[in-house]
Amino acid sequence: MKGQGIYVENNKCVYSFGSADFLAIPYTESELNAADPPVSANKGFNLTYTSNEKCKKAPTGKDDMKFTMIVEGMCGTNDDATYQVTKINNCDATIVYTSKTACPKTLQLQKYLDMIAPFLGSIFIVFGLIMVFVGARFIELVFAGLIGIAIGGIVFLFAYNQVLNQYSASMGALIGILIVSFLFGALGSYLGFKFAKKWAIPVVAAGGGVALILPLSKVVSLHGTPALIVSAIVGAGLGFYIGLKLEKYVKRIGTAMIGSFLFTRGLGSVIGNYPSNFEDDASNGKFKYDPVIFGYMACFITMTIVGSVFQIRHSR
Fold it and tell me: For residues 44 and 102, what is the distance between their CA atoms, to the nearest angstrom?
């Protein structure tokens, strides 16, 4: 048997399991009110494993039933973990795991990012407005800027996920990563500017395709990092192709579209509630998104139309 977990009975491997479904366990309102000092909203989690094989002791008429193993992680006060089997039936079992490691933790990096989000959002708003209304006049600079943003973003995401400890990193470490990312982005912009005359319009169009496809993917309830990456690649490919065929209009509409995306994203950082990704609903374990995305999408579309019309009429 192969899997991430194995269920053994009488020294024999009976069931194998793949990935588990995660579900947070919230405190009740009375427990939250009685807590001193205050506690997090969740007291633990459930990991539900479903077997790859059919349950060998399934009730009559339910031959397709699988065996279910639930690991219930509860926040404890000791470093040492304790395990307790609380239920074993024919087709399901429950183990309670109690330890400090099951307690909720605060992501220090996320706290710092939330602090600087309004500042970064203001920068996005200013640059977004410039691109919406006069981006076509500075197409080569826009091209170089997109290259810089892409390279700087990749460097930051790599460092954020692979280098920094998200639970204990300091504000200084985060600022250092931002500076390094900026320097790499600036170098990318400098080198990209040299290729701007030949590739500026199709690359800007590719950026416009990504700017359009990401908000749309949220509206149609597309979630998960792989799906979003694929949709972004598709949007970039279509935009690049269109940019090669329709240069005159693409450089105006493309810059307006990218500027609208930056403006809307910056606005979301300043006023809040921008659904940057789908959130996991702890109450039922299913994905959901904030309906406010429709308001941001309307802003994005309106700014794109206004900017495109303005640039087509006033740009040479």
Answer: 6
Residue 190: strand, helix, or coil? helix
Using alpha carbons, select from 194, 189, 180, 237 the residue that is nearest to residue 212: 237
Residue 13 sits at φ, ψ, to 5 deg, of: -75, 115
**Residues in the chain with pLDDT values less than 50:** 277-288
Q: Sort 289 into a burial class: Cβ within 10 Å, 0-12 / 13-18 / 19+.
A: middle
What are the start-end ranges of the E strands in 10-65? 12-17, 21-26, 42-54
Query: What whole-number distance in Å separates Cα of residue 161 and Cα of residue 69?
Result: 31
Ordered domains of the chain (ranges, CATH): 5-102 (2.70.130), 108-314 (no CATH)
3 state DSSP class of 211 = helix
**Contact between 250 and 199 (Cβ < 8 Å):** no
What would the pLDDT profile of 266-302 be if each residue is shown by its tens digit?
Answer: 998 888 777 654 444 444 444 445 567 788 888 999 9
Q: What share of the chain is helix, strand, coil (3-state, %, to 5)?
A: 55, 20, 25
